[in-house]
Design goal:
Largest interface: A-B, 47 and 48 residues
Helix content of chain B: 25-40%
CATH class of one domain in chain A: Alpha Beta
Number of helices of chain A: 13
Keywords (chain A): FAD, Flavoprotein
Oligomer: heterodimer
Number of domains of chain B: 2
CATH superfamily of one domain in chain A: CO dehydrogenase flavoprotein, C-terminal domain
CATH architecture of one domain in chain A: 2-Layer Sandwich
Largest sheet of chain B: 6 strands, mixed
Radius of gyration of chain B: 19 Å
Shape of chain B: globular
CATH architecture of the largest domain in chain B: Roll
Strand content of chain A: 15-25%
Strand order of the largest sheet of chain A: 4-5-8-6-7
Protein name (chain A): Xanthine dehydrogenase family protein subunit M
Structural class of chain A: alpha+beta
Number of strands of chain B: 7
Number of helices of chain B: 7
Organism (chain A): Mucilaginibacter agri
GO molecular function (chain A): FAD binding; oxidoreductase activity
Shape of chain A: globular
InterPro entries (chain A): CO_DH_flav_C (IPR005107), CO_DH_flav_C_dom_sf (IPR036683), Diverse_Substr_Oxidored (IPR051312), FAD-bd_PCMH (IPR016166), FAD-bd_PCMH-like_sf (IPR036318), FAD-bd_PCMH_sub1 (IPR016167), FAD-bd_PCMH_sub2 (IPR016169), Mopterin_DH_FAD-bd (IPR002346)
Structural class of chain B: alpha/beta
Helix content of chain A: 25-40%
CATH topology of the largest domain in chain B: Ubiquitin-like (UB roll)
Distance between the termini of chain A: 51 Å
Number of strands of chain A: 12
């Protein structure tokens, strides 16, 4: 690990001011940040500890939306009664990720900022355009079983690792950020960036901007929702494929739907095409299969991960059938 | 029924161990509560992969006050020192083990403000004001913690290397109160790896404490 100055910020403005310089990073839970610092993948000169900021509240909104402080721990969010009742897919996604110890440390805002677990990103002996722009992508012609099939480019096929973010993508969350110029909001779909020709740019935050809250707008039918994660072992493993699904089924007809996929995209992957295919259709397996085909229609598999296309479809169909059964 | 829940790590999460004074430091011959410690990990010039500018960067010192097993400590450390390394290398509390050092194995699990965490992925400097309990802090004198007794009774270990982390994690699991079935215990102990495969006996030990 390289030397850095540790600054313990006492309030938002101090944190933002301290982090305004280049090579400065916030640290909250540290579960990914410190991991990457130990490997010299992240080499900040200044680390701003934001754990003393007052961003630990889960506030229920009058319309049954919810506002989540950026420092709320993944464990607290996952077991929160309001979240479990109104947005069960979010609770399930969180509980499917990492370990209890890591969930006790990891923050909501930090989860948004976690970086890919592509082995070539983690191993500094290999080329990686995300880690070292212009160095190449060792994954494209390497062992790419865990890599993405959606949203890839000729520069990067790294999978976005978060489970929580898949649920937040489906739920259409809004990210509140505060910077030197004030507060702004970022729709979830715009927060993470596709790799395109600049895979080292992963999100829409500016230097020094602090995530303060995540708002989930009211979505009553998300009370019937589910997160299904498929992985190589039963616990404590990243997704091969996952699906976050909410359905509003009335008299056998789908009125509203939310669909997002994990483990397959270079960012948390909401599929508006799949949602459109479901809305107005009858709640049957053939409808779900059609939606799944549309969700993966642009998939671009590589040598070792072609299985993910079919697996993601089956994951989505299974999740849809499960949610239909809840109705 | 409020419409807001505050999950701040406030005083209510903390134990009442503040006045319990344990003898670890005096055993080590270190007097007083304040330790000034030489920076760890200072590299020789040219030792860096990144070139001269990085190699020349000096270590930064961070001062932190925290309570460990009931005893308040002020530590002056290289800002890079993790809680795990501070416990083991600076305070001689070697019960907490270093396994993977990347949050994957759970050997370094300690309780921070009553919650189980990976001490290897926590900077000591981030623990200002925290109450840390390690495996050394669970027993009351010669009287073992019930979880320690249960691990002995059910033979919840073989080589023992993962055991301090397993026990601290199990204490956290019982306090959290989410594991009702064997399957839930296994799922919520998945952050602790045991290469000897003592898992069945660990589950038995945890059930015994849950049912006590």
């Amino acid at each position: 690990m390289e030397p850095f100055k540790l600054i313990r910020a006492q309030d938002n403005l101090q944190a933002i001011h301290s982090a305004g310089i280049k090579q400065s990073k916030f640290i909250a839970g540290g579960t990914n940040m410190l991991d990457l610092m130990k490997l010299n993948i992240e080499t900040p000169r200044q680390v701003v500890d934001i754990n003393k900021l007052s961003l630990y509240k889960i506030e229920e909104m009058p319309d049954e939306g919810v506002r989540i402080g950026a420092l709320v721990k993944n464990s607290d969010l996952s077991y929160n009664p309001f979240i479990k009742t109104h947005f069960p897919m979010l609770s399930e996604a969180l509980l499917s990720g990492a370990s209890p110890q890591l969930r006790n440390m990891a923050s909501t805002g930090g989860n948004l900022m976690q970086r890919t677990r592509c082995p070539y990103f983690y191993n500094t002996d290999f080329a990686c355009n995300k880690r070292l722009p212009g160095s190449g992508c060792a994954a494209i012609n390497g062992y790419n079983r865990m890599n993405a099939v959606l949203g890839t480019s000729d520069q990067c096929i790294a999978t976005h690792p978060s489970d929580m973010c898949v649920a937040l993508a489906a739920l259409g969350a809004i990210i509140y950020v505060q910077g030197a110029k004030g507060i702004r909001t970022i729709p979830f779909a715009d927060f993470h960036l596709l790799p395109a020709q600049t895979p080292h740019l992963e999100h829409n935050l500016r230097q020094g901007e602090l995530i303060t809250h995540i708002e989930i707008p009211a979505l009553p039918f998300a009370a019937k929702s589910h997160y299904l994660k498929v992985r190589d072992r039963a616990s404590y493993e990243f997704a091969l494929t996952s699906a976050a699904v909410a359905l509003d089924v009335q008299n056998g007809i789908i009125r509203q739907a939310r669909i997002a996929l994990g483990g397959v995209g270079t960012k948390p992957w909401r599929s508006l095409d799949a949602e459109k295919a479901l809305i107005g259709a009858s709640a049957t397996e053939s409808t779900y299969k059609r939606a799944a085909d549309l969700a993966l229609a642009t998939a671009n598999p590589y040598k070792d991960n072609a299985f993910k296309v079919e697996l993601a479809k089956r994951t989505l169909v299974r999740a849809l059938k499960t949610v239909e059964g809840l109705s | 029924m409020g419409d807001m829940t505050d999950y701040s790590p406030d005083e209510s999460n903390k134990s009442k161990l503040g006045t319990t004074r344990r003898g670890f430091l005096s055993q080590l011959g270190v007097a007083g509560a304040s330790l000034t410690l030489a920076p760890l990990l200072v590299r020789a010039a040219g030792d860096s992969q990144k070139g001269e500018d990085i190699a020349a960067a000096p270590a930064e010192i961070t001062s932190v006050s925290l309570t460990i097993n009931g005893k308040t400590q002020v530590l002056n450390l290289d800002s890079r020192v993790t809680l795990l390394d501070a416990l083991r290398e600076k305070l001689g509390l070697t019960g907490t083990k270093k396994g993977c050092d990347h949050g994957q194995c759970g050997a370094c699990t300690v309780l921070a403000d009553g919650r189980r965490i990976n001490s290897c992925l926590t900077l000591a400097g981030m623990c200002e004001g925290a109450e840390i309990v390690t495996i050394e802090g669970l027993a009351k004198g010669e009287q073992l913690h019930p979880m320690q007794e249960a691990f002995l009774k059910h033979d919840g270990f073989q080589c023992g290397y993962c055991t301090p982390g397993q026990i601290c994690s199990a204490v956290g699991l019982v306090k959290e109160g989410h594991a009702k079935t064997d399957a839930e215990i296994k799922e919520l102990m998945s952050g602790n790896i045991c290469r000897c495969g003592a898992y069945q006996n660990i589950v038995a030990a945890i059930k015994e404490v849950q049912n006590a």
